Amino acid sequence: MRLVLLGPPGAGKGTQAELILKYFKIPHISTGDILREHIKNNTALGQKVKEYTDSGRLVPDDIILEIVQDRISKDDCSNGFLFDGFPRTIAQAEALDSILAEKGIELDFVINLDVEDQIIIDRILNRRFCPKCGKIYNLKLNPPKKDNICDDCNVELQQRKDDKLEVIKNRLEVYRQQTQPLITYYNSKNILINVPGDDTPEHIFEQIKKAIEDRK
User: Fold this and answer.
1) For residue range 12-37, what is the model confidence (pLDDT) as tens digits?
2) Where are the beta strands (DSSP E) in the chain?
3) How many CB atoms lie within 10 A of CB 140?
4) Cβ atoms < 10 Å from Cβ of 196
C-alpha cells in the first residue's frame, strides 16, 4: 500500500499517519520529521532548513526530493509506505511520479484531511511537544496529566517556534497557494480520498480505512 496524506498544517496528519502505519504495517515517511532531525543535530542541511521553517517558508524541492529518493530506496519500503507532508507542490508531485515510475511502482491512494482554518489555528496554538521523546500534546484536546509536563519524561513541554499565530497564518496561505492544487491533481488520477478532519482521530481513521477498503 503506497499512500500520501494531504491536508493543511495542523489537520492531524501526524496522528492519522500513526494509525495508518499500525493498521497497514507500512513505514511512515515524514519529510518534516527528517528535516527536524537535521535541525536538532545542527547539520549543515539542518542550518539551511531552519532559515526556511522559522519563517514559515517551504524548503526547496532539491533538498526534499533528495531525502525522498533516498528514503524510499530503503528495504522497509519494498511493500509500501505512507508519505506525510510530501508532496507539497505540483512540481514535487510530478517529481514523485517520475521517481516511482523509475522503480515501476505508483501511488495507490492520496488521503486528504479537510479542516477549516480557524479549527487549525486553535489546534496549532495549543500544540506542545516533549523535547526529550518528541511526544505531541494539545493543551485542549489531548493535555498532559500534569500542567505542561510530559507524561512519560516528566520534563516541561515546549512550543515549536513556527507554532505562532503570524507564522501559522503564513503557512496556511502558502498551503492554499501551493499545496491545495494537489487535490485537483490527484483527483484527476482517480486516487484521491477526501475525509473531514474535524472529528475524533479514531472516527477519522475509520473513514479512511473504509474508503481504502471499499476502493481496493
Assistant:
1) 888 899 899 999 999 998 888 888 88
2) 2-6, 28-30, 81-84, 109-114, 127-129, 136-138, 192-196
3) 11
4) 12
- The angle, 0 to 180 degrees and rounded to 10, between the axes of the packed helices 61-72 and 90-102 is 30
Beta strands in 88-166 (DSSP E): 109-114, 127-129, 136-138
**Which sequence positions are flagged as catalytic?**
13, 88, 127, 160, 171
Which residues does residue 185 pair with via DSSP β-bridges, in sequence order? Answer: none
Interatomic CA distance for residues 205 and 211, integer angstroms:
10
C-alpha cell at 45: 542541511
What residue ranges define each of the domains in the chain, with the CATH number in brackets?
2-215 (3.40.50.300)
Per-residue pLDDT tens over the stretch 96-127: 999 999 999 999 999 999 999 999 999 889 99
